[in-house]
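Homework help board

Subject: predicted structure for assignment chain

Our instructor gave us this sequence and asked us to write out the predicted structure in token form, then describe one feature. I got the tokens but I'm not sure how to describe them. Can anyone check?
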Amino acid sequence: MEMINALGRRKSAVARIFLTEGTGKITINKRDLTEYFPSPILQFVVKQPLALLEATEKYDIKVNLNGGGFTGQSQALRLAIARALVKINAEDKKALRAEGFMTRDPRQVERKKPGQPKARRRFQFSKR
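My token output:
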């Protein structure tokens, strides 16, 4: 099997992954998964598509991650892994879609408007 690459995005985070056959090692920005995401919840989120297809020990994944915060980055990485697994075996797409791993979350931060402290929050109104 050759190297397969895929892209995942969430908020302002972008994950570019390179998937090859191996032992289940995930390297993010030249650091190990447990070092990059110390939280076990985020590690679980990243491994969800692999666990669903029982492929945690089959592939080595090298990741370039940038932008966003840790939650957005972990979810962008999950999407990229799911897309790469579909490139390997198209029959897996139905199972991944049923769990919601193939859907790109379109929600973005709303911009701040002039004359307001935040996007929707107004300054306190004073009658006098």
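Reply (TA_rk): Your tokens look well-formed. For the description, you could write something like this. The first strand starts at residue 4 and ends at 10. That's the kind of observation they're looking for.
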